[in-house]
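> run fold Transmembrane protein 180
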Amino acid sequence: MAWRPGRRELYSWKMKILWGIHANALAYSMTILGAGMMDSIFNFYYVKLFLNRYKISETAFHVAQKNDSSDKSPCSWQVVFMIWNAISDPLFGHIPDSSGPKRCARLSVLCGAPLRGLAFLLPWFPWRRSREGGWLCGLQLGVALCAFRGPPSLVRRAPFAESCGRHEGSLQPFRYKQVATLLASTSVLFCGLLSDNMEDFASFQAFTVLIAALAAVCMCCAGKYSTSQYEQREIHTEDANLENRDGAFSLASVVSLTKQIMTEKNFPCFVTMNFFQVFHLAFCNNFMMIFVDNLIPKDVLSSSVRSIMYGAGFICPQCLVLLSHASLKKFGYYRIILFSFYYEGVAAAVMCLLGQEHYYLLAFYVTTNMVIVQASFSLFNLPLADIVDADLIKHKRRLPLSSMVFGTNALFTKPAQSLAPMAVITILNHYGYYNLNNVPGHPDIRCTGNAVGYRPVNNSKWSFLNLHDAMFYLVCLVPLCIAVLQILTWIPFSIQNIHLAAPQ
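> ok
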């Protein structure tokens, strides 16, 4: 039966002929825009919200016991989320790849868009029946994390590999993606300016509702108008493909496909490096505001300057990636990513040697470190797309296992999103951050060693100083150690010399 173009294909051709717009790339960029706005705000604010405003205890946040707390959380929510976060992407990622190209990305976006918008709003409106730090606060955190970062997170990652096409046609979609990510990153800046960095909580809540609505509309438009290259190529053979789908959801097929993906020699190198990058990114997103608020006095950096600095941590990475287009063509993503690791390690070592009293240098270091981490992470879809292609060629598949590759990667890297806040909060609370957070007025640890109303940890008048030191060394040593580990695991990656001229 002859294949005839559908309404989406005619729309794509019309956009390209009349306006010179890559309609499919534009549609997928709307997914990036919608999901990116919500991701930026969620990752940046949720830890401080639950720690400083909802007063969640360490027990409710991630551990099973806390001797000095009357709160007895029924479960470890960060651990629950870590397990769910790891298994949900590969579990649900197998479904699109098994259901054929026509339903792969488009239906996952259409179904996930409104659900993801609602899940985004869960943490910002407290469940009033709960006392501060009570078990219901922990339940709200667990539900919000599992709902927002569950299966709908697939809607904006795997479609990129399918929409790019082969290497010669992948540059334009990549640039569309980065422009959308740039626009999405401004959400943190405007949120900080309009809500005074979450001090005006009513304005903050109103802004999150607006973002959720805009994001849902963007992703629904993407699901309606996007068409992958494999859908265009294979739609006329869909009836024949039905015969090959029997048993597609069997456990044996999942295990077999996952084994094939993991035996690709570059996959373990990438996954290990990506694990540390996800850990570093979560470390920056979740604690940048907390570290800056406590390490740099408020009379040195005003609230508006801090908002701009926080916004720059999300906006500048995307500008950097867009401006590095020529460098990507000349050197390839492998060398640029490797250089970013060297920079992070050297910058962390220098800052640690300079000390903590150079406030402006510290602010510059914290911001640039976040910029480099975010910018290099924006390039990670490129090697992962190459791994998808390598798997396609090696096993002679008719269609790529994009969602399976991205999901298997998530199985090993997503736990880092939970390990980062769990580890850092444990260290900070050991040095008295929980007590500091519950002092009325939130005293500035730069001003006094024993604030009024604070009960020193271990009866030491230097508890605040110890907390300050702990924060500073976390800011310096975590990036340094991660950079060293990433350099060691990224060097063996062997696809770096294949696609210098046309990154995906």
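The chain has one domain: 20-233+265-490.
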